[in-house]
Design goal:
38% of the residues lie in helices and 12% in strands. By secondary structure, the protein is α/β, with parallel strands linked by helices. It has a single domain (3-208, 268-289), classed as Alpha-Beta Barrel (TIM Barrel), CATH 3.20.20. It has a seven-stranded parallel β-sheet. It has a two-stranded antiparallel sheet with strand order 1-2. Helix 5 (132-144) packs across helix 6. Bound molecules: NADP nicotinamide-adenine-dinucleotide phosphate. NADP nicotinamide-adenine-dinucleotide phosphate (NAP) binds next to helix 10.
Length: 323
């Protein structure tokens, strides 16, 4: 079983964001059924954040894990200021890493999740107006108080990772990593491996693109604003994905499973998200899909580093993105 710092976790975790945030409507009963299935399948690593649905996501996860918390590794995040749960102490900033703010946010997350400790507490985006040492110093105090089990960073640069790790050992880095977003391979992955920090790829299915999603139907879906999903960019990117479709057909698997199996081949712990039990089960089955070196090379030729057309996030997103 993979290790993330001192935590032993399943080969895949579950990203709960889409149950409350970003990708359009989610049916509450189906969301709870999906979370129940996560636990039935034995998935032990669940990812949420204070900003997802403005606290709704943490409450939903809290309901699902009530009386079943033992053996789970629960991760949450603070630092993106968006809505009521995040406003206090943020000084009008869109990304906030002030020590007092971190402490106040954690208390809210603990309540909503109904737990006494959050296992991995991530700095969701780096506040460049606050020295990272100050933020990490406060998180180290929260760890000493037993309120968190480990400190994580999300979307941090190699320099920030090193500075943070020098202040207090970092348990995990969570950044985007998938076939169409391989930027972390150059500097970030070697850095976390050197320092012994666990790597948790978010959006391992390319926000659904690598599972076949095209233009979203729901007006509230944030992918309406993501350049990679728009117009010519989407068409060019889809031509690359057709190669994954073809490989999937040859292997008797789905495009999503091949995409996930590729991430899994990198010895990291992805946290794919879905609102549907059938997608969850199919994604979990990707654990059994082992890709040989020729297939991995074919996939990487289809999606060379930097070849995907369109920025990862809308230009208006706080720091490097809204989620
Ligand atoms: N740290 C950060 O800044 C950050 C940013 C983004 C995400 N995250 C975390 O990473 C997790 C995963 O990322 P993500 O949700 O953005 O993207 P993802 O896991 O790459 O993709 C999720 C999308 O793929 C679709 N999907 C999943 N499995 C599918 C399948 N088997 N067949 C067809 N469609 C499928 C989902 O739609 P359905 O719901 O219809 O299945 C959803 O739209 C999030 O839940 C969140 O916890 C963190």
């Amino acid at each position: 079983m993979p290790q993330i710092g001192t935590f032993t976790v399943t080969r895949q975790g579950f990203g709960a964001m889409g149950l409350s945030h970003n990708y359009g409507h989610a049916d509450e009963a189906e969301s709870l059924a999906t979370l129940n299935r996560v636990l039935e399948l034995g998935i032990t690593f669940i990812d949420t954040a204070n900003v997802y649905g403005n606290g709704h996501n943490e409450e939903l996860v809290g309901r699902a894990i009530k009386d079943r918390r033992d053996g789970l590794v629960i991760a949450s995040k603070f630092g993106i200021v968006g809505g009521g749960v995040s406003a206090e102490g943020a000084n009008g900033k869109r990304v906030a890493g002030d020590p007092a703010y971190a402490r106040a946010q954690l208390d809210g997350s603990l309540k909503r999740l109904g737990v006494e400790q959050i296992d991995i507490y991530y700095v969701h985006r780096i506040d460049t107006t606050v020295p990272i040492e100050e933020t990490i110093g406060e998180l180290a105090r929260l760890k000493a108080e037993g309120k968190i089990g480990g400190i994580g960073l999300s979307e941090a640069t190699a320099d920030t990772i090193r500075r943070a790790h020098a202040e207090h050992p970092i348990t995990a880095l969570q950044s985007e990593y998938s076939l169409w977003t391989r930027d972390v391979e150059a500097e970030i992955l070697p850095t976390v491996r050197e320092l012994g920090i666990g790597f948790v790829p978010f959006s391992p299915l390319g926000r659904g693109f690598l599972a076949g999603a095209t233009a979203p139907e729901d007006d509230k879906d944030v992918r309406h604003r993501h350049p990679r999903f728009q117009g010519d960019a989407a068409q060019i990117n889809a031509a690359r994905r057709a190669i994954v479709d073809d490989i999937a057909q040859r292997l008797g698997a789905t495009t999503a499973q091949v995409s996930l199996a590729w991430v899994l081949s990198k010895d990291v712990v992805p946290i794919p998200g879905t609102r549907h039990v059938r997608h969850l089960e199919s994604n979990w089955a990707a654990n059994d899909l082992v890709l040989d070196a020729d297939i991995i090379a074919e996939l990487e030729d289809a999606f060379p580093v930097g070849a995907t057309v369109g920025a990862r996030f809308p230009e208006t997103a706080p720091a490097q993105g809204p989620s």
